[in-house]
Structures are given as structure tokens and as C-alpha cells.
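Sorry, explain these C-alpha cells?

***
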Amino acid sequence: MSNNNEVKISQYIVNILKEKGVRYVFELSGGMIMDLIDTLYVDGCIEIINVHHEQNAAFAADSIGRLSGIPGLAIATSGPGAINLLTGIGSCYFDSSPAIFITGQVNTSEQKGSKKIRQLGFQETDIVSMAKPITKFAYQVKCVDEIPLILNKAFEIAVNGRPGPVLVDIPMDIFRAKINNNKLLNTQAIVRDVEEIDDVLISKLLMDMRKAKKPIILVGGGVRACGAFDLYIKLVKLLNIPIVSSLLARDCIPYDDQNSVGMIGTYGNRWANIALSEADFLLVLGSRLDIRQTGADTKSFKGNRIIYHVDVESEEINNRVLGCYPIVADMKVFIRTILNKLDGHELQKNNSWIKTIRNLQDQWPDILELKNIKGINPNYFMHKLSETRKASIYTVDVGQHQMWAAQSLELYEGQRFLTSGGMGAMGFALPAAIGASFFKSKEAPIVVIAGDAGFQLNIQELQTIKRNCLPIKIIIINNNCHGMTRQFQETYFGGRYQATLWGYNTPDYVNVSRAYGIPARRINDTNEIEDALKELWHDPLQAYLLEVIVDPYTNVYPKMAFGKPISHMEPFCKPIEMEGT
């Protein structure tokens, strides 16, 4: 950085962003943020990606943060622009994605302050108060001198401990103000209080693991969020224990790994849920054990099994499932401790337990959960989509297609799976794929899997894909309804399909895609799948849309019967009561 002269605050901010490793900024222009946009353009070191809704800027930043570990960046103007970021900010918060959100605010002289009025300046909105519940830190800058401290604090907080989003709101006149370019940039790192790992407890964990006849590891999204994935891979190779995953950890064990079992939870693979229910030892790594993983019957989930629960946040342990041995630790520290204890020695493999699980998998294949289905079986389609292994990253939207993908995609080493878990935000996949494509420098194909309903929420970003020549392959599983809530209505509301099937329809996605200049095709029958996928991958680096028609009454099975143990799944078991989530 220059050692002389003063610079505008907007330039100073850009300098800090570059120092922190930010390569991309996602934005939609607006008056209160234009000074920063102009400075980013003139500086030229950070690529500016213009999207067509601020929510999509936030989802793209979410994607970048998850993939790189460096906070993704999205910026928006005051009022509607800032408010439109909130869904994406919430997605970052619930799924532990590091991200920085900078919003423009009206000039300090135009702010209402303590006046008992709704608004003074045009578009003046208290975005900080709105964002606080779904951020790790949200702050409105009051004066120029706060900028160095606040921006450095923002980056520290975003990545420290359990990662998440930070919002910094900056008035327009402060962007234009001057600051000494030599202001100290690096501030003291914020250190999160994490309990020391009890050596006796670790020894007991390993002893219990060795004694167990049916041990299982449940891996959650926290393993990748805290940057412990490489260490985790070393650990699981030594432990030789079957591994089940949560939705957000679908890419944490390769499909062809001998210890890979499948996804557990509400829509988990039936064999994986049964295996988990039979386990006598469970090691939980970075998973919250929320209701979509355990079901409502937490007493049955705990049973008589021994559970060790590792998480960076103490409040997440013994929250719903009681009686777990708590290990509050940074995942990297925990895994290093275990690796040191093992000292390179593998645990003895329990071949009979592995064989039992494989027999369960043979007994309950995912492609046969939907018997007598009309037309294309979505689980079968997901397997066929996976065969080429050309996708570097799958970004998956929210709905029935999300669960079919999570149940049946074959994810191999190096492939990633991104979806909106805690927020469950429809419209996530397309902008997340845009972020992922820039992360990959537009040199590797990204596959979007979306439903017809969710795709309509952010369909305008097809223009962003075309304008930037992004190699994004879009799969739309079109069942011409809001499928997951239609299935809910089938179970609990006597098949009255208002607002899901009735009063809903879709456009012609093939013609829509072509209107944006992106080639497209529609298939209706199983015998078309192979040829369509060849066409999809004809040019791996060209955008393409494939619409896959699925019968509207197709359900996602298996599905945990609400109120019953995790192994009791529909359609063979019926729920006790209406789902609470």
C-alpha cells in the first residue's frame, strides 16, 4: 500500500478487501453504494459481478465463502437493496458460511437519529437492527476513524469459531471522506473461548470406540465450515468406521469409499437410518442433531448407545439429544488430538458390521423406493447424472428435488455439494452456482439442480450466466407443482392441493432458456435420459438447461414417520402427528 497521501474511504476499503484475499464482489447498483462500486471499478483488482436481485448477490457470496473459507462479499444500496440481502444473509448464518455484507446508507446529516419519525433521508432504513439476529456482527459506521477497526473486526468475526456473516452499514458521506492511507490495517485477532480438550475424555472415547460392535460416525457441515476437512479425511482412514452424513455434509465422504454409508435424517437413505438406529456407538462431528436429522423422538435416537458430540459451540451439545459426552472444541484441534493418540495405528475393521450395512443397502435400494412410478424416476435420474463425474460442484435448490439429489447423487472425491440447509431458501441454487463458477475461474462445469417452483424465484440470473459465459449446467426437475408441500398436503390435508398444484403453473423453460441464449432440451421419458445427458455434456464449458418432467404426484420416499424412531419411515409407517418443521 502507498505510504503517502490521504485516500478516499472507498479506496481504503478496497485496499483492505484486497489484503484479505477478496477476489469477487457481487452487487446490484444503487445510489448509496455507487461510490464504492466506482472505486472498485477504477481500482480494477476485484472483479465486479452484477446480478439482477440483491438476494442473489448474497447467495453467490455464501457459495464463495463455503468453497474458499475466505468471506464472500456482497454489497447493496440502502433501503430495498439492503433488505433484499436478508434471506441470503440468513442462509450464511444458519449454514456457517463466512461472508461480508457492505450496505450503503444515507448521509449522516439525513439520518433521523432520535427523532420519533419513520424516515428522514430517502430510503433510510435501519438495516443493522434487522440483520442483527442473523449475523455474527452488524454495525453502522458513525465516523471515518471507525473504518479500520470495524472492517478488520468484520473479517475476524466472520471466520473465527463457527463462521458466519457480518454486515457493515456505511453512510454515503463517509465513503467520500478521506483517511490516512497508512492507518494500521491489522488489528489483534479476536480469540474465541473454547474449552480445553479433556485428555481423559479423549482416551475414554477411543476405548469406547474400540469396544463398540456397531460404531458409526455422523459427519456434519461443521467439518468443512471450520476448515478441518483434510484432517478429517486422515482420521476416517485410520478409524475404519462406517460414516453417515447430514444434508450439508453429503460431500464429506466419497461415494465409492468403503466406509461411506449414506445420508441420514427425515429424507435419509432408509438403510442409513436403520444402520444408525442399530449403532451402539456414535461420534458426531460438527452436526447440530436438529430435528431433520434425529426426528422428533429424541429419546429413541439416544437409546442406550454411547454418543460423543464434538462442536465448537457448547450450546449445540445436549440441546435436543440428551446424555451425550460433550467435547467443545475447534474441529481441527479435536482431530489433531485424536490423530496424535492414534499415532498412525488403524482401528481394527469390523467386517461383519460393514457387511450388515451393505445388506441393508441391497435390501432397500433408493431407486426402488418409488415403485410403479409414471415416467422418469428422479432417484434413477440422479444416478445417471452422476455417472460422467464431470460436475465439479453441484448446487442444489430446496424442495423434493433437493432430497432426491441428496439421496442418490454419487459424489466422488473432489466433488462438492452446496444447498441451503438451515434457511431452506428456494432460489438458492442458481446464484450459488454463479458464485461457485467464479470461484472455479469459469474453468469447470457447475451443475444446478432445481425444482420448477424454486427456479422461478431467481430465473433472471440466466442473464448473468449468459453475460459472463459461465459453464453452468441447469437441471430443472419439473413436476409442475410445489412438490414438497403438495406431499405435505397429501399426508395431512386430505389431498387438497391449493397453492401447490391448484392455482400454480410453470412457463416453458426450454423457450425461456433459449430466449436468454442458452441451449435447452426437455425430456419426458426414461429412454431419453442417456441421449439428453450426452447433449448436456457435449461441450462441458457451455451453459445448458435440461428440463426433466416428473409426474406431479411423485413423492419423496423414504421419509421419516414424524414422531416415530428414525428407522420408521414412510410409506410403510405413518406419522403420529403433524410435522412441526
